[in-house]
Amino acid sequence: MPDAFDSIYAHFAPEISIDLGTANTPVFVRGHGVRFVEPTVVAVDSSSGEVLTVGEGARQMMGKAPRSITVIRPLRNGVISNYKYTEALVRQLLDRATRGSLIPPRVIIGVPGSATDVERKAVREAAIGAGAGRVYFVQQAIAAAVGAGLPILEPHGNMIVDIGGGTTEIAVLSLGGLVVARSLKMGGNRLDEAIMAHLRTTRGVLIGERTAEQLKIALGYYGRPRGRAPERVVGQDMRALRPGTFEVREEEIGSAVAEPLGEIVDAVRAVIEVTPPELVRDIADGGFVLAGGGAAIAGLAETLALVLTMPVRVAEEPMLCVARGGAQILADPRLFNALYPTPQSRIGRWLRSIRFGMSENSSYSSR
Ligand code: ADP
Ligand code: MG
């Protein structure tokens, strides 16, 4: 496609940014901000495999569906474990976001760093099938850093820790590329599981995943307890085999989540240890940013700052960083050209780097 057409198209086309998270899929539309946030859940007819519904409607069925319906989280562990259903989700959400638009939109999709070419191809085809004109992929860690306001194009150490439902992405970026990136196969879901296990072993009480998540949000903390009142929840007494209400104290939740949170802290420390010293200095001075739903855990940022002895801040609206960052990348030519260089601009950059003797920069721009 000729360049002139591309730039005219890019000027007029609607822009849509989708963050394929393990727990939630926020969708941004230029001019509208967040259009909607749907849980990354698909409900399927168990015998035919046909998709019944996606998003919130499917999540309502979790734990309550009859055998004829299977409820699937297609990205549960941070990999596109089921791309047929990921495709169905993308197709439906994009359909909803583009309804009424005459020009095929430019679409950017935040995907886990582990997404393979085959998975990207399936998602791309779903997006094209739903009417996308152009489809771009961005690693969630890069989009999260942009959405959190980090100047990723600068020759500067920018660090992001994105704690999602099924994964935690830790990355250091400089000059528009990833310098170090680690993906932990655990996030908020693991905290919920830890809360369930803790109440089972210490009190003989069984609670569901949704209840555990509510307890985590209401009473979870890292470091010092916050002095919040106990919560009453419905659970099942393992001995009486009957449901009842139970009072849960803040300290019980804090001690349940301390171990998985400690694993995240260790992983952050390990990333800093393998980061080039010049960039570590930037991070130690300017700090790093927490994004994702897990960033909101009480005391997490303060405690991380204390144990790692560097400033830590929580991004604004941390669950929306990736989708917002994707939208910013489409809208900002400087970011866009740096992340999606055309062959000409790639050669130009290479020639310039030789002329100015900066060829070491290229090692930072690998994605
Ligand atoms: P993903 O990117 O994997 O879809 P999100 O960034 O949307 O994940 O975050 C979802 C996770 O954040 C869930 O585990 C959810 O329980 C957790 N979460 C959401 N809000 C809070 C909160 N206020 N405190 C602690 N955890 C939260
Ligand atoms: Mg995410």
What is the share of helical residues?
A: 40-55%
Report the sheet-strand fraction: 15-25%
Shape: globular
Poorly predicted runs are 357-367
Name the bound molecules: adenosine-5'-diphosphate, magnesium ion
Radius of gyration: 22 Å
Query: Count of helices?
Result: 13
Number of strands: 16
Q: Order of strands across the widest beta sheet?
A: 3-2-1-7-8
Main attributes?
367 residues, five-stranded mixed sheet, globular, disordered C terminus, binds adenosine-5'-diphosphate, binds magnesium ion
Question: What would you say this structure looks like, in words?
Answer:
With 367 residues, the chain is α/β, with parallel strands linked by helices. Helix content is 42%, strand content 23%. The strands form 4 sheets. A 5-stranded mixed sheet has the order 3-2-1-7-8, sandwiched between helices. A 5-stranded mixed sheet has the order 11-10-9-15-16, sandwiched between helices. A hairpin with a 2-residue loop joins strand 10 (168-174) and strand 11 (177-184). Helix 3 (83-98) packs parallel to helix 4, helix 6 (188-203) crosses helix 8 (250-273) and helix 11 (321-331) packs across helix 12. The radius of gyration is 22 Å and the shape is globular. It starts with a helix and ends in a 12-residue tail after the last helix. Bound molecules: adenosine-5'-diphosphate and magnesium ion.
